[in-house]
Amino acid sequence: MILGDLGADVVKVERPGTGDETRGWGPPFDAEGESAYFLSINRNKKSLVADLTVATDRDLVLRLLDQADVAIDNFLPGSLGRFGIDRDSILETHPSLIWCTISGYGPDNRRPGYDYVTQAECGWMAITGQVDGPPMKVGVALADVIAGKDAAIAILSALVERASGPLSARRRRIEISLADSARAALVNVAQNVLVSGQDAARWGNGHPNLVPYQLFDARDRPFVIAVGSDEQWRACAFALGLDHLANDADLATNAGRIARREQLVAAIAERVGARPARHWMEKLATNGVACGLVNSVAEALSATGASPVTGIPSSVSGSVRLRPPRLGEHTEELTALGWRAFHA
Q1: Cα dist. 282→205, 236, 328 in Å?
Q2: For residues 93 and 168, is the Cβ–Cβ distance under 8 A?
Q3: Which of 115, 144, 150, 180 is the catalytic position?
Q4: Nearest 5 degrees, angle CA 289-CA 292-CA 298?
Q5: Orientation angle between helical segments 230-239 and 277-286, nearest 10 degrees
Q6: Residue 225 CB coordination number (10 Å)
Q7: Whether 144 is catalytic
Q8: Which of 39, 77, 276, 298 could form a disulfide with 220 if both were Cys (CB 3.0 to 4.6 A apart)?
Q9: How is 212-257 classified by DSSP, letter by letter?
């Protein structure tokens, strides 16, 4: 979808009858019977129904590959070969084609990949949730999302490089896995473990490396304060009327604030609990301190122009050209015209 947002012509090849499994991942469904889940990730694509066990359908897909810049698949290792589609052979005979496979665990592992399992196995759930609570997954299928973005980045990199000259077969063969993307997304948490030799823990709404950088309860609703520098800390303390903490030399550095985390957080919590969140938001914002109300999803979407058909506006300055397709909606024209169906 990201590539489609950026202008790519995208053909989504789906199995007959059911198509993409996410078409059934509801409710909610819209008035045309499409699941909200499917709608969220399938704009700017045309849908082609093809049964790869049928020679004519398989030949159609191969003809489309003849003209394609990029192929993306999410089949388990070995599955495409059983349909008579050999990725390596196709790359040999199509020297400009870039092929990206997105899997759960890489090219040598046939385990199916699902976001929830990935979050569990790759450390995310161990660090998400309340300090004394059970492991918790992230509320969005974020491993899926990050893997998709990684795929888009890798594909665009290969396309840019291809524009300067022929690519090697190795460079044209991209492997993205949910597990690799999820582990890479641990970033500073992973580095904390590598440097300290101590395993990571859950911090609830706090931060392992920064204080104050967490949720606080104002008198009427929760909000977040995010202090990212020593200068911001002094501004924060003065904005909250905690001048004695702002002038405390032991708290002047982040390391000092980490050492006195409990005392500092308790002082802020007591202070902000006395007034409404908007009161503190105004004072903090005036002093250049990052802060934000805890909004519902509906509140977060209210001013974005998000559509119940095409979803949230592109995050990469792309555009919406096509609504998500109905199953097989473009099979006939793609069969007749191939890629010319986009420009006919």
Answers
A1: 22, 12, 52
A2: no
A3: 144
A4: 160
A5: 130
A6: 22
A7: yes
A8: 276
A9: SEEEEE-SSSEEEEE--SHHHHHHHHHHTT-HHHHT-GGGSSHHHH
66: three-class secondary structure by DSSP = helix
pLDDT tens digit at each of 344 positions of the chain? 999 999 999 999 999 999 999 999 999 999 999 999 999 999 999 999 999 999 999 999 999 999 999 999 999 988 999 998 999 999 999 999 999 999 999 999 999 999 999 999 999 999 999 999 999 999 999 999 999 999 999 999 999 999 999 888 889 999 999 999 999 999 999 999 999 999 999 999 999 999 999 999 999 999 999 999 999 999 999 999 999 999 999 999 999 999 999 999 999 999 999 999 999 999 999 999 999 999 999 999 998 999 999 999 999 999 999 999 999 999 999 999 999 999 87
d(CA 261, CA 211): 7
CB distance 260 to 251 below 8 Å:
yes
pTM tops 0.85, yes or no: yes
User: Which residues are bridge partners to 226 per DSSP?
Assistant: 213, 290
Nearest residue to 25 via CA among 13, 7, 40: 40
Type of residue at 219: R
